[in-house]
């Protein structure tokens, strides 16, 4: 009995002695987050329940207005399309770079991942250099087909900009995930006579699925909230971050801006939660 | 190894994607050094004049951004390293809830976070007008980017074992934290600090809402120049930004490579 009792006592004492200072170490971060994140967020949520013009709360005005709903739908669609395209391109490139060894590979990896840290405004400017009135596409189109191709200031420009900062993220994630794949599964499939595309669909894609889902969710979240790119390309684009900005600065409608922000944040957050649930499910079945 | 047609096909695709990433950056470099971009490089020649003009007009935004980035890194290290330690040690329901809370500002659109800060603290004029207001936003936004790598390193270094050894030799909690925990997680701290500095230098979504005409950061100045200045000036300004950020990114890649191999620096 004593032999059993003593380690338990020691364990209990250790549990008491060690975690207490560790908990204190969390206090500064908790204080900063409470003061500058939780309180402002609660304030934002509360402000959205107010109303300025009309009897209903700003949330209700957002959810019943065709203009705001259309903007939200457009933002979501754009984010979904960008995420899908970035996942497709990034997965092909990432798998290739993770698997193949050739001269200049690490330089390619470095070049492909730099844009990850470019701010949205800079990406917007780069899109203007590509597809603006004096851009590359305009001069190429002018010299070859006799007409300027200008797409920077439309949804296509926004799509290209979002793609520009999403692809590096997917490449990095896929490269890391590819390293952990069990290659013997692919060899087994191949030796059983599977065609190359079947190996990709049945072995590689399921193996990469958790990484792709989590990265896709982050790409979606980034595209939903990206303001800098749209701001550079022109504020007449009807995406929600720009709508929030216009509501706040041009119309000084704080309640409406708060409500729109909360709805946009809620959609983004829901997407991230959904992705995490999906990963947990696939993790259980695999 | 024998290269098949499939290999070259995919290599071509990778190179095309790389061109998509690289060509606009090179164009910006070229435009920033060209005397008159609309006439072309060949017709008008190269110049450093735009870079000098940008530096004369916007140098203060560069200094403010650097000051913000350094202050942000210091602040995030001061609250983030203890927090990472606490989260690794606690590892219970409360610490996981805290992690969720900490990551939320990254998931939320930056504009929404900035709006929340502005509506809560905007009425305190002195605070609103100072660069500390932007600093607060940057600290909240970049905190998880330091805590995550530090936690990863702490978990890998068998910290509880080392710490227990130190405790059995009579080291108190503070002594253990500064002589065992911090030195053993320095690779993670370095990676986190580089990431925080990089993000802070490029942060726009929050900063655009939080800045005042007296507190313009580099990305805010960039947005100004994109909206109003001529293409060469905007390009030259972008080049200055890239000169600041690319060395940081190279260092970040090197340290992450190091961490991925599991070495200790």
UniProtKB/TrEMBL annotation, chain B:
Keywords, A to Z?
A: Cell inner membrane, Cell membrane, Membrane, Transmembrane, Transmembrane helix, Transport
Q: How does it sit in the membrane?
A: Multi-pass membrane protein
Where is the ABC transmembrane type-1 domain positioned along the sequence? 62-252
Transmembrane region positions?
12-33, 40-58, 64-88, 100-124, 130-147, 187-210, 234-255
Key word Oxidoreductase present in the record?
no
Q: Which PROSITE patterns match?
A: ABC_TM1
A Pfam family annotated for this UniProt entry: BPD_transp_1
- Give the InterPro entries listed for this entry: MetI-like, MetI-like_sf
**PANTHER family in the record, alphabetically?**
INNER MEMBRANE ABC TRANSPORTER PERMEASE PROTEIN YDCV (PTHR43357)
Family label = Belongs to the binding-protein-dependent transport system permease family.
Q: What is this protein called?
A: ABC transporter permease subunit
């Amino acid at each position: 009995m004593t032999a059993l009792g003593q380690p338990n006592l020691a364990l209990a004492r250790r549990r008491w002695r060690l975690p207490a200072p560790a908990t204190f170490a969390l206090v500064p971060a908790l204080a900063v987050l409470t003061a500058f994140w939780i309180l402002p967020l609660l304030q934002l949520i509360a402000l959205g329940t107010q109303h300025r013009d009309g009897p209903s709360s700003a949330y209700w005005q957002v959810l019943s207005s065709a203009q705001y709903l259309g903007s939200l739908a457009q933002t979501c669609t754009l984010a979904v399309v960008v995420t899908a395209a970035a996942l497709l391109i990034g997965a092909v490139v990432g798998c290739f770079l993770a698997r193949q060894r050739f001269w200049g590979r690490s330089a390619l990896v470095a070049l492909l991942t730099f844009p990850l840290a470019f701010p949205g405004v800079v990406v917007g400017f780069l899109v203007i250099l590509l597809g603006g009135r004096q851009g590359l596409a305009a001069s190429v189109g002018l010299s070859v087909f006799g007409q300027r191709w200008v797409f920077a200031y439309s949804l296509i420009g926004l799509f290209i900009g979002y793609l520009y900062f999403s692809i590096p993220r997917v490449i990095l994630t896929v490269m890391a995930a590819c390293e952990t794949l069990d290659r013997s599964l692919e060899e087994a499939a191949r030796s059983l006579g599977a065609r190359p595309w079947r190996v990709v669909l049945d072995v590689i894609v399921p193996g990469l699925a958790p990484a792709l889902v989590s990265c896709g969710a982050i790409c979606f979240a980034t595209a939903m909230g990206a303001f800098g790119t749209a701001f550079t390309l022109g504020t007449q684009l009807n995406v929600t971050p720009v709508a929030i900005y216009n509501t706040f600065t041009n119309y000084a409608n704080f309640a409406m801006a708060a409500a729109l922000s909360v709805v946009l944040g809620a959609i983004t957050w829901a997407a991230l939660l959904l992705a995490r649930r999906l990963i947990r499910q696939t993790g259980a079945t695999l | 190894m024998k290269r098949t047609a499939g290999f070259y096909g995919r290599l071509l695709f990778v190179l095309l994607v790389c061109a998509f990433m690289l060509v606009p950056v090179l164009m910006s470099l070229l435009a920033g050094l060209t005397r008159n971009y609309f006439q072309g490089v060949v017709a008008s020649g190269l110049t450093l004049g735009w870079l000098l003009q940008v530096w004369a007009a916007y140098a203060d935004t560069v200094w403010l951004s650097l000051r913000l980035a350094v202050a942000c890194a210091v602040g995030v290290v001061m609250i983030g390293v203890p927090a990472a330690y606490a989260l690794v040690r606690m590892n219970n329901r409360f610490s996981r809830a805290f992690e969720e809370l900490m990551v939320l500002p990254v998931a939320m659109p930056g504009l929404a976070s900035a709006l929340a800060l502005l509506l809560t603290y905007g009425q305190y004029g002195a605070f609103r007008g100072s660069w500390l207001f932007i600093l607060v936003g940057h600290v909240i936004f970049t905190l998880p980017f330091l805590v995550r790598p530090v936690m990863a390193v702490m978990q890998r270094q068998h910290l509880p074992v080392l710490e227990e050894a130190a405790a059995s030799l009579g080291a108190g909690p503070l002594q253990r934290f500064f002589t065992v925990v911090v030195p053993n997680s320095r690779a993670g701290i370095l990676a986190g600090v580089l990431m925080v500095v990089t993000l802070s230098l490029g942060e726009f979504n929050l900063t655009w809402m939080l800045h005042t005409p007296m507190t313009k950061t580099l990305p805010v100045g960039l947005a100004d120049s994109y909206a109003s200045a001529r293409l060469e000036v905007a390009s030259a300004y972008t080049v200055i930004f890239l000169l600041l950020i690319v060395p940081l990114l190279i260092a970040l890649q090197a340290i992450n490579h190091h961490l991925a191999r599991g070495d200790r620096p």
